Amino acid sequence: MAQITLKSLAHSYSPSPSGPEDYAIREMEHVWHQGGAYALLGPSGCGKSTLLNIISGLLTPSDGQVLFDDRVVNELAPEERNIAQVFQFPVVYDTMTVYDNLAFPLRNVGTPAAKIRERVAEVADVLDLTSLLKRKARNLTADEKQKVSMGRGLVRDDVSAILFDEPLTVIDPQLKWKLRRKLKEIHERFNITMIYVTHDQLEASTFADKIAVMYEGQVVQFGTPRELFETPAHTFVGYFIGSPGMNLMEVARTEEGVRTGTVDLTLPPALRNAIHRSRSRNIKLGIRPEFVEVLTEPGEASYPVEIDNVQDLGTYRIVSFTFAGMPFRARLGEDRPLPRRHAYVRFPEAWLNLYIDEFRVEVGQ
Amino acid sequence: MNKVYNNRAWFLILPMLMLVAFSAIIPLMTVVNYSVQDVFDANTRFFTGTEWFEVMLNDPALQAALLRQFAFSFTILAIEVPLGIGIALLMPKRGWQASAVLILITLPLLIPWNVVGSIWQLFTRGDIGLMGVGIRELGYAYNITRNPADAWATIILMDVWHWTPLIALLCYSGLRSIPDAYYQAARIDRASKWAVFRYIQLPKLTNVLVIGVLLRFMHSFMIYAEPFVLTGGGPGSSTTFLSQSLTTMAIGQQDLGPSAAFSLIYFLIILLVCWVFYTAIMNSQKDNTTQGGA
Amino acid sequence: MSLILENIDHVVNGAVHIEGVNLELAPGSFNVLLGRTLAGKTTLMRIMAGLEPPTRGRVLMHGEDVTRTSVRKRNVSMVYQQFINYPAMTVYDNIASPLKLARVPREEIRRRVHETASMLHIEHLLERYPAELSGGQQQRTAMGRALVKDADLILFDEPLVNLDYKLREEFREELRELFKARNCIAVYATTEPNEALALGGHTAVLHEGRLLQYGPTEDVYHRPRDVLTAEMFSEPPINVVPAIVSGTEVTFDRNVHFPLNRDLAGLSPGQYQFGVRASHIGLERQAKDDLELEVQVDIAEISGSETFLHVRNELFHLVLHLTGVYEFAVDQPLKVYFPTHKIYAFDRNGDVVHIPSRPGAH
């Protein structure tokens, strides 16, 4: 059991890094609290695997410290950190039975046989492996093997955290949700810190209470799935989370208001003032397709647009339109009326997010 | 179902069949033919039935050669397999050292059989050979032409030197194909070095080891050139293995019938041992606790 | 240029891979083969391509029997799951390779490679080698090779599975555009119902080697012929609940009753399976005749902007598809609303007997 703290942590694979682009992990502070269910989400190459290896001890960071509770563990090997890890491809000891696989980590440290029996029985029960205990591990299906490798982490009562590295990649799609539920159950029952690394927003948001979104070696947001959806802290989070991602428009200050492309925007005063106060030239407004209103008749603060394309996805539709020269998308329920070609759109102010230099700025009312 | 069978494709294997016929079936049949006849000259021959087989199976010299052969084959396997695995485990995994070691290890494999015999013949000579002289210097009266134990030990040493690299190479490639995740998982499970070997490396090596052991077994059963050059089968007949007995009989004494019968027995023994061995290994890999078709 | 499959059976070592498939693909059409793994999609494509002759049946390409014609003599190209390119050739040479084999004049090759590359947005990468490209770019190159040669038939075997979902979104939109102006037949295999919907065109639903239904994609989705088609062509799968209609009432498993409404009035008494789409069950009452069900949360699967909520009670296991992010604890009690006017009814054989009307349809 431990709280994992990353203190001024950074990592570069090059021996003499000259700039931020040489860093796989840019300097960061982060705390994973004891007992939390966390995800580390990001596209390939964002540094999430590097960070995972630093936490597990397979890689020593070039700068900063990793702390388990108050202990600096930078120099400790994985076996000394009491960390369990579940890999992308199931790792089981082929020639052993399921029982021996589960007992293996305990036997390695000389646990008494009676205690081993008790722990293995308990873990096998949670993971629904009891009926398979006598089977050779090599003959299991991929999801069973993955449960066995998870079980090897759970049998130890000294484990401070379990790390998951894309653990559901090889699982049959129809079985995935069951395994996801199993994971959540286990988390609630064992009160172990779990960190789940993935590039898939569904895996991350389903498993984790809080998600760290990584982009170019930085954690750009650490929040609940709902926060990532409603208030993305960075334009990348807006783009990466949700299908389709957030609509973003570059805006510029004018004498009396705010303009995007050739269109003058009607904005609430608080938002307009926030934009006017900023010195940056990189100002964007973002709104999710779910919140864009598509109207057949002009309304208050609506803008006329031309509809380019409609994708019918069965019970909802994705409407693509061009607004101020930029491609936009709106998501429309099947019951909503669909304009033919000319339409009007509204951007409800509650769902408009302001980004200055790519990071979200809270606008007071 | 009026399924259409297109059987023309079978013609494509005709050339292969013919090749096999010329290279294997026809020679084998000739041998079978000889084994059931007593041949005096080109025109005089008698049908003898299984007589030659009985004679051969009861010949004490051949029985002794067969026993010697088994003793030899199992001894070299018992040394080469663990030694080969050991070397493979110690070999560097990457970098120029890996390539250098690979080349060094492979060298003995590139030397022809009879040359190996000659090299060792020189090497072990009591008057000028490095090893022969060296051992005598240590005070042991080493002599492979007089002392059967010395001759045996030398032949085994020679075979180990010549063929352990093959096992080592096979194991090395087997070890390289184990994904890193297995080693990482084992570290996290706090497995000892021995446990890593026993539960990760050895199971993953089983397949290459089966091939290696079969190859080495067949090879060793056919060993001829090296002991022939090194010891000539002596002293006495202490290092006369099966193939040499056979050659002496067939070529030296022109006993075509008995040697043909003996060849067939020899062939069947190799086939039988290989089959038993292969089946045993393959069965041990199956999960005997798996119930009906699961 | 149409492609017709007639009574195709395919049996390998006694195992039936394809059984009695009849399919006619119109010239210039975009067709999706939808089915789970091992439904027979790849086998069927290999038969279309001529990589494998069927055990029984005929393949007709613009009226001509090509069942036994080898793939080399048909004008076919194929894109695979794996990004298959020649590693020692540049992107330009990769795309040009089918044209060089066909001995197309040099100038013509140059023109067509550039045209294809710009269509696929990889014109700036023509000098690079496949190893220097990202996964998406490699797949674009492989597609370039398939598109450049003006094939009569282009087959895509789950080309996007190895790409991450953001790239998949982009590709789906582009693919539709790419094929609008072409006169070839495109066949696209996928396991994902939503991909079939996004691609549009026509969809053939395959299950265990049999063709369940073929037609315009929206039509197959909204008007499935039977319960299996409805389940295969929906993600999350349509919720199916056994129901008994007697007199003026519907009963779910003896316990839940509700009066037959106007929509379902035509159903004669008997046993049925009722299907309700995951997105039609809600957390709030939408109409006054919605059924209120008390359930427990199995798990809330959250996909960034939507939530797949698995719930159950003693009688059912249901999946809800909600727009937006909803966080629920495992086993949390909850009320959900089951719409009685959006029900598909299937008879005991699984054949559809009632399809709900769609308010938004036009």
What is the end-to-end distance of chain B? 31 Å
Q: Summarize model confidence as the mean pLDDT of chain C.
A: 89
**What quaternary form is this?**
heterotrimer
Order of helices and strands of chain C: EEEHEEEHHHEHEHEEHHEEEEEEEEEE
- Beta-strand content bin of chain C: 25-35%
CATH superfamily of the largest domain in chain C: P-loop containing nucleotide triphosphate hydrolases
Number of domains of chain C: 2
Q: pLDDT under 50 segments of chain B (min length 5)?
A: 288-294
Radius of gyration of chain B: 24 Å
Task: Provide the gyration radius of chain C in Å.
Answer: 24 Å
Helix content of chain C: 10-25%
Largest sheet, spatial ordering of strands of chain B: 1-2
Strand order of the largest sheet of chain C: 6-7-8-3-9-10
Under the CATH scheme, which class of the largest domain in chain C? Alpha Beta
Task: Tell me about this structure.
The complex is a heterotrimer of chains A (365), B (294) and C (362). Helix content of chain A is 25%, strand content 32%. Chain A is α+β, with helices and mostly antiparallel strands. Chain A has two domains: 4-238, Rossmann fold; 245-361, RNA polymerase II/Efflux pump adaptor protein, barrel-sandwich hybrid domain (OB fold (Dihydrolipoamide Acetyltransferase, E2P), Beta Barrel), CATH 2.40.50. Chain A has a six-stranded mixed β-sheet, sandwiched between helices. In chain A, strands 16-20-17-18-19 form a five-stranded antiparallel β-sheet, with no helix packed on it. Chain A has a four-stranded antiparallel β-sheet with strand order 2-1-4-5, with helices on one face. The longest helix of chain A has 18 residues, at 173-190. With 294 residues, chain B is mostly helical. Chain B has two domains: 26-58 and 253-283, no CATH class; 65-236, MetI-like (MetI-like fold, Orthogonal Bundle), CATH 1.10.3720. Helices cover 70% and strands 2% of the residues of chain B. Chain B is built from twelve helices and two strands, in the order αββααααααααααα. Chain B has helices at 14-35, 51-58, 60-90, 96-106, 113-123, 130-137, 148-176, 180-188, 193-221, 225-230, 242-252, 256-285, and strands spanning 37-39, 45-47. In chain B, strands 1-2 form a two-stranded antiparallel ribbon. Chain B is globular and about 75 Å long. Chain C folds into two domains: 3-226, Rossmann fold (3-Layer(aba) Sandwich), CATH 3.40.50.300; 239-354, Nucleic acid-binding proteins (OB fold (Dihydrolipoamide Acetyltransferase, E2P), Beta Barrel), CATH 2.40.50. Chain C is 23% helix and 34% strand. In chain C, the strands form four sheets. In chain C, strands 6-7-8-3-9-10 form a six-stranded mixed β-sheet, with helices on both faces. In chain C, helix 2 crosses helix 3 (106-119), helix 2 runs parallel beside helix 4 and helix 3 crosses helix 4. The two termini of chain C are 31 Å apart.
